[in-house]
Amino acid sequence: MNKTEINENKRKKTFKRKGSFTKNRKYEIKPERIFSEPTKFKKRPVNPDEDKQKTNYSGTKFDDLNLSEGIIKALNKKEYIYSSTVQSDVIPPLMEYKDVIAKAPTGTGKTFAFGIPLLEQLDYENKEIQALILAPTRELVIQICEELKDLSEFMPKVKIEAIYGGKPIEGQIKALKRNPQIIVATPGRLKDHIDRKTLDISKVRTAVLDEADRMLDMGFIEEVTKILNMMPNRKNLALLSATMSMGVMDISWLYQRDAVEVTVEENNENKPDIDQICVMVQNMHSKMKAVEAILDNNDFYKVLVFCNTINMVRMLTDNLREKGYSANCIYGGKSQTGREKTIRAFKDEKLNILIATDVAARGLDITDVDAVINFDLPDDKEQYVHRIGRTGRAMKNGIAVSLLTPFDQDKLNDIKKYCKADIKEIKNDGILNLSTEGDLENDN
Length: 444
What we know:
Blueprint (H helix, E strand, L loop, with lengths): L2 H7 L59 H9 L7 H11 L4 E4 L6 H11 L10 E4 L3 H14 L8 E4 L5 H8 L5 E4 L1 H10 L9 E5 L1 H6 L3 H9 L6 E6 L4 H10 L4 E4 L10 E7 L3 H13 L6 E4 L3 H13 L4 E4 L5 H12 L5 E4 L14 E4 L6 H8 L9 E7 L4 H11 L4 E3 L10 H4 L4
Parallel strand pairs: 1-6, 1-7, 2-4, 2-5, 3-4, 5-6, 8-13, 8-14, 9-11, 9-12, 10-11, 12-13
Helix pairs in contact: 3-4, 4-5, 14-15
């Protein structure tokens, strides 16, 4: 067989050359793109005759917990009269410098439970750091710091500083020179300051690990143990968590003695009041339409939407903003300044819709979130609980809506089994008015 015959018998190439393929393009919002002012912004109506916030959690009044005048004044300003169950159980032992390990559902007031004793125990003449709070995420650090500053509004000598990554360390070094009594920090950035000798925690009396299970799951076990070992004068340690993982129990065994154990079960009083709903859609386009229908036909003024990928977050944000909705997004790659600005706008209800990856599922304690929408079901069934827990906080009613394609049924079944949740399926009628009781009872 000669060379010509060999070439003729070769299989003809039906594929394009490597260089002729179009590269997969990631969806991006162009920085120079300017959106017009939202035309569909919803402002929550103010009704002066409306019943005040439901705060009767435990039956124990804050007045009965022997708190100082400044704390009571701040609580009254927020219209908090009764403590939650976790608050009434945790505040007294922490006030006596006892170790505490507390397991409580999300949204039950754990920040005030440890924050009030820390503020009450401060020695204003002591310029050393007296209390240290560790939290797993920047968002949670900022949130805790803001809540403590609100609590100490009528305590002018209190100084609290937040220490976390994503911001220039020089500004934090300058803030530390003002001798704060309370530090709220992520483990990584706190360790940076300790290594630079810009911060001394050797005189800390009380340490708190908030969202302890999440912190250890994120791989901070080494940093946490090293930090705890650097506090020889520590009188007590508080561990607060939504779950009691093996890592949390190990920390308790190593660093706590005769700890007071507090467990707040999800009963009718403490369990967040969340209506869980799912809607079947056919494809991505149908999901987009379903989100618009939910926003248009319900009196929701603060909606948190979760997507599994950054590209989907950007695409959905872009789509809603083009159509006049008041929407913005946060995700892992967004600048810290941009994230803080967006979260602040959402908290202050200058923004109706916050679209996020799971970076926002833990650590954001934002009140009055009317609804959570799972644009994508999470891959991790535990993450579903953390997502929907962003609504129904402070004993208020919330709604969680999951948009499903036919491929999501197995994932939904796993979530139902894990959560023991009654997730009702409603028909996708193109309107999706979720405000009426009849709609929630309309099972397929």
